[in-house]
Design brief:
homohexamer; Hydantoin_racemase-like (chains A, B, C, D, E, F); 11 helices; 270 residues; alpha/beta; Rossmann fold; globular
Chain lengths: 270, 270, 270, 270, 270, 270
């Protein structure tokens, strides 16, 4: 099967790291296609950036022109999953929910360790919206920004392990969720430092996407996530016009879609 | 004071109706500037459209180049308010929360009557996120789409009043919130039909924005809604590039901002 | 419009301070009539006093004999708002709810700083009952009694600012609510000390009462807050008989009402 | 032991019925003293009446001049229990909580059947405040007013049993709580009609008061229900002045207390 | 009346201590029969042991061959109460719920002090399941195992009183629940040390069982706790076969039941 | 990898059906070993049976003498998962939680359709305990007992599909969870009848167990699910003694463990 793994920021370096993590977790036979949004912030830390990123992720998936079987949104605590679910006829997995679910399976309560303190309320809101907050013991910040985490794994490890240990001792956490896609690759080291299970969102997201595809399950289309109604959507998808303006003439294929009446999302017929 | 009232869809007709409602509710001395997003759907019914609209609203406010004292986001149950709060140094009021708050002041529990059934889960999620769900007796759908509501006020009134009456009788609602900006202008008629208070979101949003400005209150900047950190944001704001691609050379003033390192939002110094 | 601002304790000095705060917050054209209950405690700190005060407030409003457009109950975390709503055909605003609502509009979570620790559980109960607890980060006590707060503003400011700063740093509050009517006049100083928005209940209550009146909204009468049924109520209202006993013959006008069959509340027809 | 059973309305007929129910439930050796408030409504249906009644109940207990071991507040869903707890150094039991607790012990979920629909929100609020709402399947109204229930037991039984059966069948109730003190005496008949346990509040309240006294447990005085602070309370207790005004010279003993500095409540030293 | 008090562990010494506590709390005329399970752990600290103990308790009651009027399950925070309720036609009281209920009656919030930290999540889960968590301020561990608590009352008292004081000061508890049956006998000393009400589960359980029997209330049989359906249950009850294997021929009376088609529980007809 | 799939009832026919379902869902390379408890009820419908079954499942796993990588507990809404987690050093997945998690991934809210009405409260309690109730729209009963469901798939399908359709239309469910292990094999037919995703617990449980093993995640051992402490456990495991009594001399290997001091669970070292 082919899984689209969509980074939420525009850093190609982060996209490559996410792809490595995803491929290490994937089963044999799973192809991971890692995508970077065509616009938006280089890192996502806050609501404005998260909303912009959500649309950039939807745009990136909507303009992907091959078949695929599932989508994994690789940003922790970010907006947008519900929109992707409406657009795509295949399963969509947000790494926030994937990680929290697996953490619940291996413990009573879990704590999230994330990047900056400013992202804590947003993560808590996202978990509450997903109905996964009841067993969340705490959300703690390491104090390092997303790009710092990604650049200095040693410092990242120390900061994360310190907060993870406090989560276990003070907050009663039985397991730890790494609350930032930029922490990919650190789960084993944090597990060794704390002695509790540590869940990485990208690995969890890939595993759950594989499970859904394997079981023939996809988003229900009768209710909350029905496909968008046909209607006029000015400039959608956005990237062809944006890139046309920035880099010269827009690509012909994309230009056709720029004023399309409906949002649609090519996917492998299942 | 000057309030930016931002429609969430691209229908100029809806923008004009919202402006009429807002001006009827505003105090003497309040100037209402009604804005229409430069991209996005002609009506917002679902999560994909709501996320796209959220960014279009932020883009519209970010490219408005005069001073203003408050922003009212005029879409019911839509995404984006938290992002606008980070961008703007002035108060931002979402009509969803404004309406639910006033409904709580005039009754024990309130019900929302909205457009299509597919928007019900999104409205419930938004109210839950805002901590306003405890006193929400129900969210009911009239069965009419946003543009239908706006086009045929007679049919809209009958459908809304019928659901409002059931909300009072069956769900125990003490008051009704009109759950769609396209219902602007119907509150008095629904009140007469049901005998309970009926809250229109646009009027409520304007009144609360005026109150916040009057009391010198604005969004706290130390915590959840701190301004975005300085960073590279590709193509932000989006509309200059989008419109440049579609309509010819982008406007000079906007072009300067197109690859700016930080998101910022001009507002009247207070 | 005329707003009745009812102090919950019998201290005329507090009533005058509340009136000053309310008038500073009111729009041009709003007349604030400040009332002091005719019986009850000189300060309200605890449930017994709060219940007694609730009835004294209702008695004071029921025996006010001019027209008015709204009532603001100026005690933080006190009982009685629902009773007033049944009695009065005009909007009734409790400063507890008013302040918490505005705090929600300018931040993600808010903390309350109140007087004595013994009032904390009562305030939390009141916020929970009003459905406003979800976004309450904490309720903290300054350790000063109501009358101490009112007498020494310097000491009050230091104690409140210290707790407010801890609420922001330790509890994640984005804004502060002054949780005692006796703190009127301190909001600006606490805002300067902490850098976060500070909401004063009296100002908030007046602003919301003005908004409700301006929008033509008042308490729903079909459900939870329907007017009292006609029935025998011994000695209601209480103050004519009480004052007659204490000070000589009861006032003729009041005496007529002393054994009335129904509770009623004169208000301006709207 | 001596238990003060305080009716919340001024109907002596109701007081006598409550006393009969209480005495039937009491153990040998328990003396039930039934008290009627000296002011307030003849029946309590709504918040205004409930607040007034709460103070009348406190006044009645505060002016009772013999020793006693516990107080049972015999109004379902009414205000005031927390105030009584501050005033009295002996256990105070509200029949609402007593009945809901025993119902939880004999089933998974319980439903309340009360008098008029207008009292439903107040009962739900009271149960929520007491933390007893989680297992409340529903609160249903019989449609009969308090005094109607008390006057026509046949009609009361039919109306209550019909709602009780629907609570079991439709709402999943395992047991029924009679949600009005005026239903005293009907529990056995409703149990026969429905086949589920039926809890009468007065009987439950007496039993729990006996248990608390028997185990030497009384209200904690360090926290939420600490005794009132010494302070000036105008006209407290209220009844001596009220009765003095209405009926002639106030009773000497009571007059002494009319302007007392502190609220106190004589009780048997334990 | 006769109450079966069932220890959850196999320590006869603990059973005797529980019986002493129960008899001290019981009214005149109440006979307490203390039972020890025929299999299972010598102390219960954790979920595996708690589940095993739950079945051992049900087995012990099912093989008790005299009449009885109520059952008290004397393990704090343990599994099994719902199963016993299905088996027995008489009231079943779990000391966890009994203690938490009485604690709610004498304070606003209560804290539990238990044995080891590992039992804290299980107790919290049990309280949440019983709908008694809303008013639980905290669950604290003394750090002493069940058998240590039972063996050294001096050390137990010091450890419990220290946590109880912190619960009052730091967590806002108004009362303390002793969260381990092995703490029987310490309630008075902890109350003296802290000045707040202290509830012992065994005493509370006996008192509530007496109240239910006295009021003629027993588990509802139409819903959640209907008697088991007739069906093949291999080896039930378990103890006759277990003891037969271990100690020789099983007792004749028990052998008859060993492969019975239905679970039943002899009890006094009421 | 080898997964132990443990039926919760003693019906070998059900065990075979579960094994078929599990093997159809498993990936290549996964070996499913299906186990039947050695004692307990032939079907599990109610709390008594569920508790007994929980211990029988733990006994069955504790006496399994080969290596294995994960355990799936194949009873919907049953007790015991936490105990198994303490006993086993490998992942333990309860099909209730597995199914609800996958249902959350493919929709906003899910409904459960189960066997008899009497099991509804138990399932709701289990979902609440697992923190998975927030997104549960309803739990509906088909009215057929476990063994009826397993015997007549045609009748089962009709009854389940009817309730599923009502869950979608009336309760707003976006997906359906089959709430009884005896429904194995019906998911595709119910999906066709309703057009919404249908999750079978056994398939979900196997998939999640495979994911956990694949990602190297297992139950955290520092907190809520630490291994049992060493202590005397009379007759544990139970089955050797039970079978010795019933069928002759117990098996030698098992006899050694019959009075062991600690509970342990052989598993493949990972």
């Amino acid at each position: 099967m082919r899984i689209l793994l969509v980074n939420v920021n525009t850093s190609e370096r982060v996209t490559r790291a996410l792809a490595d993590e995803a491929r290490a977790a994937a089963r044999p036979g799973t192809e991971v296609v890692a995508l970077t949004p065509r616009f938006g912030p280089e890192s996502v830390e806050g609501n404005f950036e998260s909303y912009l990123s959500a649309v950039a992720v939807m745009d990136r998936v909507a303009t992907y022109d091959g078949p695929y079987d599932a989508v994994v949104q690789a940003g922790f605590g970010e907006h947008g999953r519900e929109g992707l679910q409406e657009l795509c006829p295949v399963p969509v997995v947000d790494i926030t929910e994937a990680a929290a679910q697996l953490a619940c399976l291996v413990g009573g309560e879990y704590s999230v360790v994330t990047s900056l303190r400013r992202t804590v309320p947003q993560i808590r809101a996202r978990l509450r919206q997903a109905g996964l907050d009841t067993r969340c013991a705490s959300v703690r910040a390491s104090g390092l920004a997303v790009l710092e985490l990604e650049r200095d794994h040693g410092a990242a490890l120390r900061a994360i392990a310190a907060q993870a240990e406090r989560a276990v001792e003070e907050d009663g956490a039985d397991s730890i969720v790494l609350g930032c896609a930029g922490m990919a690759g650190l789960s084993e080291a944090v597990r060794e430092a704390t002695g509790v299970p540590v869940v990485d969102g990208v690995a969890a997201g890939v595993a759950l996407a594989e499970s859904l595809v394997g079981l023939g399950l996809s988003t229900g289309r009768r209710g909350a996530f029905a496909p968008p109604l046909p209607k006029e959507i000015t400039h959608w998808p956005l990237s062809p016009a944006l890139e046309g303006a920035a880099h010269g003439p827009s690509r012909p294929a994309a230009a056709d879609a720029a004023d399309g009446l409906t949002a649609s999302c090519p996917a492998r017929t299942r």
